[in-house]
Each structure stands twice: as structure tokens, then as C-alpha cells.
Batch of 2 targets.
Target 1
Amino acid sequence: MNCKLLFVLVLLSLLLAGFNLPGDYPQVVNLTPAAVEQNLDGELIPINPYSYSSLGESAAAYSTRTGQYLVLWEGDTEGSIKYKYIDGTTGETLGPSHQYLLEEDGYNPDVVYDKLYDRFLVVWDELNCLGIPAKCYYVIKGRLMRGRYQDGNVYAGDALTIASEHSTSTAGYDLREPAAAYNETDHQYVIVYRYGRESAGAYYSIYGQMLGAGEKQPQELTDPFSGFEIRTYPSEVEVVKPDVTWSQDGGTFLAVWQKYHETNTDEIVGRYLYDYYRSGFGQVYGDGATKLAPYNEGPDPLTYDCSLPSIAYDRSNKNYVVVFEYKGGTDFASPFSVYAQRLKGAYDPTSKRINYAFSVEAADSQAEYQVRPEIVYSGLEADMY
């Protein structure tokens, strides 16, 4: 993680920890680098110290019952996914230095924790090939892993196909970039993903799958061949980087993504999902998705591209928080800042937003780029980072 992104995440924790009422507007706190450093506890943890090549997407989740983290990332060989357990108290990495979840054909891992059974559900997109001559395509896969590191016994179930639009007789669509969330009340997972054609280089739809937790293995609740549609756009609009989380107070999931358009403003869009599987009744609230940004009514209006959202639920203030990139100009050299938007924790057909978007870390020159923000709630009251 680079220093600028780390500064953004620490600053965001301080801003959001100060919220008291849903309508409050956060006060900007100016921190010096020394003040930020005081909020860092411990040294950097060398999770993959022997790699000499670029590593890809990463994800992490925390077991509240064992106090251990599970960290995953795209490995240093094409298509590999690695994992590591970390002791949350000591920062010690557990097990050998190189542990593979998948040695080839896997990308974009994500992970979510299930407290009921003390286990993690790991999801990723995987390249599969069928038929002769072989036709290759991407599907969404998943696997349960234990909440505590056990040498030689970290898996809590076999790998399973969560969603696939292909068979030996059907062309179908490619499914990529899964994001997962877990409903602690009804014990159900939701996985959202991009849905399109890899050969055409375009994804116009966001789809989802819902799974029951199941004592031994997640239970398929929706059709693994089709899933359920969250939003589909015309062919000139592409969707990028879906994310999802769950509100225990509002009883909803909220999925967000970037709506990309080559000629128009890029937007952050969201849609509320039911917190449990509703057979035959649909899984989405309302008639359509809602633009979350660059919509703004505040003194610092957003008028240009917003991209790459990440979402968390703030249990203290009972609202969702989305962070995203904001490009404050139309030319190629325009700087990137990080902004956030607070959304209601339960579906409201009249308005989803609590207040207007606010700056988390603004670029102070044309050359600055604050990019790829991520946000996660710690599980502690009024403490987000």
C-alpha cells in the first residue's frame, strides 16, 4: 500500500469516527504526517516478502472469534491466488511463506467472514475451458476456509461454482470481479459481479447470486446459470468494479459500481438488495438503480468523473459510506481526489443520500493522483478505517 493511500484511509477513519447524527456533516481535520504516523500501530507485515514481480488485487477479512485475518492476493505468477493467515494481536504470519488457494486461472479474489460458523467465504473469477476445440470463459468460484489457521487443514469445504453462464452447449457470458457480503441475521451471502463478454471487452450488466450459509457448504438459492439481474445498461455504457455490503439495522444489502461512459461523465451507481432470498419475487428494491455521485447539493459540487467505489456499513451511525475517486476536470492531466458519500442504511424510495458528498483527500496540484480508495468497518463502535 502506498503512503498516499494509507494517509487517505487513516484520515477517513478520523472523519467518520466523529459522526454522531445521520445528518451531521463531518469536520475536516488537518493532520501532519507526524500526526498520521501516531495512529499507526506496529510495523509493516511482510506477507509475501520473496516476490520480485508485481502482485495484483488483494482482499482481507477478520475472524472476530479467533482474532485472525485472512489475506488474499493475486500471486506473482499469472492466474495464481495466494493466501496468508495473520495473528491480529501479534501481527505474526501463520504457516509457510507461499500458500496457494489456486495456482492458475484465478483472478480478483474477495473474502467475507461468517461468524456463525467461524469461517471465511473466498470468491474469485476463474478461467474455464470446455469442449473440443476448447472455448474458454470466466465463471465465479468460491471456497470456504476456516476462521483459524490450521496447518494442512485450512479448507472448510470443496471449491464450488457460484455462477456460470457457459456449458458445453451454450456460449453464455463471462462473469468477473466478484464482491461478497454476509447477512448475519438470515445467514445468507450475496455475491455481485460484472456480467458481459470478455471477447468483446465490454460488460454492460451487474448481476448477483445469493447463497444460504449452510452448515457444511453454502446452499445455492438462485439459479447458478443465470443469477439475478441488478442493472443492465445499453451497449455504449460499461460497468466497472462492483462492491457490496450489508446493513444489519436496515436489513438490506447495498451494491455499488462505476458506470463508465467514454464520452459522458462517469458515475457511481447503487441499488439496494433484499437481505434474504425471496423466491419468485426478485431480489432488488425499486424500479432502477440510483446515481450516487457526482450528484451533489453542497458547497463543493462534483461535476466530473467519479470512479472505483468501495462501500462499508457504519454500525455506529447506521448508514452506508461509499468512497470513490473523483477527477476534478475534463482534461487528461486533471488531478484525482478521494471523496465519500453517506447513504441511508435502509431502502428509501424518496432519497438514498443522507448528505452531499465530501472531500476525504483533495489533490492540491494538477500532478497529484489520489486513487483506488478502499474502506472497511472495523466492527468496533464509532471506529472505521
Target 2
Amino acid sequence: MKYLILSLLAFSSLAAQADDHANVATSDGAFITMMAQSDDPMAYIDALKSNTAVFEASGTDAAGYCLTRSGHDHPGQMFIWNAFSSLELAMQAPLKYDPMLSPEQALTELRTVKYGVTWKPLKPFKLDPGYERMLRVEVPGQHVAKFVAGIAAVEQAVQSAGHDMNLGVFEGIGGGKHEANILHVRAVAQDAASLGKVLDEYYAGASFGAPWNEAFALVTGVRSDYMQECAQLYSAQ
């Protein structure tokens, strides 16, 4: 399994506070993902809370973290995300602040950066962090559009069933051997109980299970499957 620990995610125009449920889903923008390892993720999160200069330096609109709670590649797996309004701005961010060359000793002592990736959302996604399932999947190129449409259908069906859940699909750009030909699928609920309830209904035969199964019939491989607890740390507004 490849390292997936700390990510700097560059989002589209999703810079509003994450607890604002009125955020509008959009497929604009991009993600920059910086993978790293932390032996003490809570200390690293606390350090970031008290040192927003690293976010300001990159020009991010919003930033936060996701801490892996299940499916770890190793202990302390997590990611930090940053939101931008375009690929143009996202591509420039590592030139303004490069975690691999970070002069911030308080941060470098708490994590080791592994690699970076840029991501593009392939369907509208609402920034509203919570308790999240993330799957890294392989989908043949000729089936990607159908897969994305299928995940959009799942999202609509889950929400129609009364659940506050958002789903996203993201394509990697410049991820080297780690993320080449990989799509990230993210299902976001407000908390662990809410995500568990959706899964209970899925296994009990809920109607939204059919579009999920149809979409994943196009998947030729699942590289990894994580449960993550996510929250926002920073907003430029």
C-alpha cells in the first residue's frame, strides 16, 4: 500500500467555513495533496492551529485535516487539505510554500512529507467535513464518465432517502507512481453514527444500494479503503 497520510488539498471556490451547510457543491478548482507521515498527528494538528502562516503563505482559501480512524496503512495516518479557486492558483501554491523544504521547525519535527499530488473534482462536491469514507479505486478510462455519473446518482439517492451525505470523485494529476490511474471516491457524513446508519441501510437493501453497486461494477480494483474524521482548521475569510 502506498502512503496516504498528510494531504494538502486544494479545493475550488469552497472557502466558506466547513460548518456552513449552505455551501454550494461545485466542480471548479483543484486539490494539491502533500503526503507525509506523522508519529504524533494530534500534536501536528495543534501546531498547525497555532501556525496559520503556512496556510497564508500558500494563498489557500481554506484548510483542514482528516485523521484516519480505520484502514490505516500505519499508525498516525492523516491528511491536511487546502482549498483554492482554480488549478491555476493550486499549481502555484507549492512554489510559495513547499512542505518538503519547510523552514518551520515546529512542523518538520512532527511530520515527514512523502509525495505531492494535484487533484481535480470530476463532479460537484460540497466542502462540509465530517466523518468520511475514502476509497482509492481503479476505473478504466473509457468508463470514468459513466462511473462519475453513477456516483452522482448514488448521492442523489442517498439524499432523497433523508441522509445528509455528500459524495465526491477526484482525479489525480502529477501523482507519480503513487496515484497514477487512481480515482479518489469520498463519502462525507456529519458524524460516525450518520455514516454507520447509511451503511446499515445499504446492507439491509436500501434503494440507493443499486446505483452504488452499478457504479462499482465498473471498478477494476480497490487500492485502499479508509474511514477518516475530518475538520476545518483555517479560513482566509
